[in-house]
Design a protein that fits this description.
This protein is α/β, with parallel strands linked by helices and 431 residues long. The protein has 18 helices and 5 strands. A 5-stranded mixed beta sheet has the order 3-2-1-4-5.
């Protein structure tokens, strides 16, 4: 110690100065370490890449993507090389707890910046919905749509930019409109958001949300009369499609059989592999979406491309199947799907859902507005009316497709009034 003091004296230094320099060097080193760890965390988070591995220790080859990237960078970066060479049990800031802390801190910073933008905005809209998570807990989402005014160098407004930001999920404290109202006001107060700037609210059509007299939207309008309620256009479109077909037995039977067809092949590895082997296209059967009708267009596309291969395979299984049950189900599905009635439904549904899916996807874009939504819905309605008025052309198209699929001998007599009922139901609903 005396020698160190004498050495410092010769160099006009003090012991305290040397210790301070060591502390500064150590602090700068950990700043560099944290800078690399945070950069890695941001990269994984923004790309939706999972962090953790099955086991995060030196004995396993798969330590997770976070540690894998750190080790990769350590091969070329001396700072991380030194960090990784430190003995086990020393501080490294690489543990799962530290990873979660950094993710939380970064998330809080992003949320803070978004809330700051919302507070500065001259007005905003609020969009919310609820859904159950995997543990059956009802979670409410909070989304804000707001305007940012862009200024030039002279601080003059030159443009506006519309942002739509998701703030997060919150556990629902109740299902009644009064309970949801109180939770909403508490959320606004917690995030220091001024409800006087609220100009729009968007919910689904549930009575406790959209009720004219005591729904959540009515309660909010009582507090802020300038807030305009808008029923989600994409959700509304889905309800229209669902209501238009719920009383049409043929359509309901068709989709039930289509789901049975998917289950028949998907529930057997052998049958699914057999279908893949005989198919000439790289397409698989799709499971029906029970909540979004427009997405069923993908199911119909897959069915159309695989139709001939499916019928051939069903015919083969009905004769050469392993057991009576397998043969019986294959025969029943074959008899149903080779009917011309079914081919006609495939053609009609494909035309309708193809146009509606395009509209549905556009309605879900963040830059859509009410006028554009109305125009898109009106265009879809006009297309459906046009198909209804030109039903004979649709019928002839179905005949040609049936011939190309080799099932022309199954033509049946179909009354136009029965087949066009779907068109009538859809075209009677205004946007």
């Amino acid at each position: 110690m005396a020698c160190m003091a004498f050495y410092s004296f010769q160099n006009h230094n003090t012991v305290n100065e040397n210790q301070e320099k060591q502390i500064r060097d150590e602090a700068n080193y950990w700043k560099l370490v944290l800078d690399r760890i945070i950069a890695t965390t941001l990269t994984l988070a923004t790309e939706d890449i999972p962090f953790r591995g099955h086991r995060e220790n030196n004995e396993t080859e798969s330590k997770g993507k976070f540690l894998a990237i750190i080790e990769l960078l350590g091969k070329y970066d001396p700072v991380l090389t030194e960090l990784l060479q430190r003995p086990k049990g020393t501080i490294k800031y690489l543990s799962p707890a530290i990873q979660n802390e950094i993710i939380t801190a970064l998330g809080d910073k992003v949320k803070y910046d978004i809330l700051l933008e919302i507070r500065k905005a001259p007005f905003f809209s609020y969009i919310s919905d609820s859904t159950q998570d995997i543990s059956k807990i009802d979670q409410q989402s909070h989304i804000f749509r707001y305007v940012i005014v862009m200024y030039d160098k002279e601080n003059k407004p030159v443009d506006i930019v519309i942002h739509e930001s998701f703030i997060g999920f919150e556990i629902m404290e109740g299902q009644t409109s009064s309970e949801m109202e109180q939770q909403l006001y508490n959320n606004f107060e917690k995030n220091k958001i001024d409800i006087k700037k609220l100009r729009g609210i968007g919910f689904d059509g549930a009575a406790n949300m959209s009720g004219v007299y005591s729904g959540l939207q009515a309660r909010i309008k009582h507090t802020q009369p300038l807030a305009l309620y808008v029923h989600c256009a994409a959700h509304n479109l889905n309800l229209v499609i669902n209501d238009s077909v719920k009383n049409i037995t043929e359509i309901q039977n068709f989709y039930e059989k289509l789901e049975c067809l998917y289950s028949y092949f998907a529930n057997s590895i052998k049958r699914w592999a057999h279908l893949k082997s005989v198919s000439s296209v790289s397409v698989s059967l799709k499971r029906l979406c029970t909540t979004r009708w427009s997405s069923r267009n993908d199911c119909l596309k897959a069915l159309s491309l695989l139709y001939v291969d499916i019928l051939k395979l069903l015919a083969y299984i009905s004769l050469m199947g392993r057991n009576k049950d397998e043969k019986s189900k294959a025969s029943g599905l074959q008899n149903y799907f080779q009917k011309f009635d079914v081919i006609l439904i495939i053609v009609i549904e494909s035309k309708i859902l193809n146009s509606l899916q395009i509209v549905s996807l556009l309605l879900q874009k963040s830059d859509i507005d009410l006028l554009k939504a109305f125009e898109l819905l009106q265009t879809a309605l006009n297309k459906i009316k046009e198909m209804r008025d030109k039903f004979e052309e649709v019928f002839e198209e179905a005949k040609q497709i049936a011939i190309s699929w080799g099932v022309e001998s199954t033509f049946t007599k179909i009354r136009k009034t029965k087949t066009t009922k779907y068109f009538d139901e859809l075209s009677n609903d205004e946007p």
